[in-house]
Specification:
By secondary structure, this protein is an alpha/beta fold. The chain has helices spanning about 25-45, 150-155, 180-190, 225-235, 250-265, 285-290, 325-340, 395; strands at about 5, 15, 20, 50, 65, 75, 80-85, 95-100, 115, 130, 135-140, 145, 160, 170, 195, 200-205, 210, 225, 245-250, 270, 295, 300, 310, 315-320, 350-355, 360, 370-375, 380-385, 400-405, 410, 415-420. The protein has 8 helices and 31 strands. A 6-stranded mixed β-sheet has the order 19-16-20-24-23-21, with helices on both faces. The longest helix is centred in the N-terminal third of the chain and has 19 residues, at about 25-45.
Length: about 425
């Protein structure tokens, strides 16, 4: 494999907001400030409600859940077979009846007897183990003969009462981010309506005279709106249905009006584009007119340097880069953790440590970079080649992103990296 190189452009000057010049801010400091803001706000926006078990994906549990009964609630048969006493395996066993799953036991196991049982059935009284059907045969009198190995002789094949969960034990703590894997446990302890935090209200608006909606035929100088549907899909993966406010033209009054409306109706506004240094980027003035204070506007991260975060009494706003790769990555790195913290959850992304499949070299090292990667068949990761943050097809090919530290110019083949997986 050859080396993969990126072209990194660091010529963009710092933005000016009024008389204040905001410099490039450390990425990890930005994360800390963003989450601190969410912590400060969650008391104002934190509401609770109930959701069904089949709609809990991405929701945040609002209270502790404890077991209302032991799990299993009885000594449960784990295999199809014969319930018997361990000391009786050397002699033929008289079969006295059958117990199926869901049936109240009608038989007790006495010395020299056994009961045929099905997986999930209640273990009959007197039984000490269950012998699998495959490890037995019937003699001419219909008695059960054990034919298994010494290892099978010592296997109980019983799930004992309470061995998974004791009655009253803590199952999930408030703040747990729920997914399908939690559904069965919640159902087993009688939680049909799940107490969860209400979802934040999130508004999306796009900017730019050059942007048209995806269902429009663009002119030669126009592009389709990729960020709005991308952000909506990322939010939906969290269970959040976004409010969409359309595309604001490069007009100060129109942008101010749309931001004000979105601010009034949402807990958070996501605005894509309009946060760089173009002559028609009126976002800072529009945000100021709506009462926002900008906490940061240039982040030492690639992609996503012009990310802006502004706060107000009514709610907060992320100004996301217009390039779709930057927009996607910054949502994953900053917006998603912010939203979960707003709901009282500490979001921890899935991370896998893997070896680089090839060298990775860059020329500019002022920023931490999160580069898209895909997994190879041997478990290594290959950087996905792309031509800057506007090349959004690269994200569609990637399994996740991996970081290269600020000040570091190279990752050698075989170097271990932490791959942050996409959901």
């Amino acid at each position: 494999m050859g080396q993969i190189r990126w072209v990194v452009d660091e010529r963009t000057p710092p933005p000016v907001f009024g008389k204040e010049r905001l410099g490039l801010q450390d990425f990890y400091e930005v994360i800390a400030r963003t989450l601190e803001r969410a912590d400060a706000r969650h008391g104002k926006v934190r509401r609770s409600e109930f959701c069904r078990l089949d709609t809990l994906h991405g929701r945040v549990l609002s209270q502790d859940i404890r077991a209302d009964r032991p799990i299993p609630p009885f000594d449960r048969v784990a295999v199809d077979g014969y319930a018997c006493r361990t000391d009786d395996l050397d002699d033929p066993l008289e079969l006295i009846g059958t117990i199926s799953a869901g049936e109240k036991p009608r038989y007790s196991v006495a010395p020299g007897t056994c009961v045929k049982v099905m997986t999930g059935a209640v273990l009959p009284k007197g039984a000490q183990m269950v012998v699998m059907v495959e490890s037995t045969r019937l003699d001419e009198q219909g008695r059960v003969i054990f034919t298994g190995s010494d290892k099978e002789r010592s296997s109980r094949n019983i799930s004992f009462r309470g061995e998974d969960l004791a009655q009253g034990s803590l199952i999930f703590s408030g703040g747990t981010i729920l997914g399908p894997r939690h559904s069965a446990v919640l159902a087993s302890v009688g939680v049909a309506e799940v107490p969860v935090r209400s979802l934040p209200r999130v508004g999306i608006l796009s900017t730019g005279d050059e942007v048209v909606e995806a269902d429009r035929q663009p002119l030669a100088h126009q592009i389709r709106n990729a960020n709005a549907p991308q952000l909506s899909a990322q939010l939906r993966d969290m269970g959040i249905e976004a409010n969409y406010y359309g595309i604001a033209r490069d007009d100060r009054d129109e942008l101010t009006r749309l931001i004000a409306r979105a601010q009034e109706e949402n807990d958070l506004v996501l605005m894509s584009g309009g946060v760089s240094m173009g002559d028609f980027d009126f976002a800072p003035e529009a945000m100021a007119a709506c009462g926002y204070q900008i906490l940061y506007s240039r982040v030492a991260v690639k992609p996503g340097k012009p990310t802006t975060f502004a706060v107000s009494e009514r709610g907060d706003l992320f100004g996301l880069p217009g390039n779709p790769v930057s927009c996607f990555v910054i949502f994953e790195l900053l917006v998603k953790p912010y939203l979960y913290r707003l709901m009282g959850a500490d979001f921890q992304p899935p991370i896998i440590k893997a070896a680089m499949a090839t060298d990775f070299i860059r020329k500019k090292t002022r920023r931490i970079e999160w580069f898209p990667v895909r997994f190879e068949k041997d478990g290594t990761v290959m950087p996905v080649q792309y031509h800057g943050s506007g090349h959004f097809a690269a994200i569609a090919e990637a399994d996740g992103v991996a970081p290269i530290a600020q000040g570091q110019a190279e990752l050698k083949k075989g170097a271990q990296v932490d791959v942050r997986l996409f959901s």
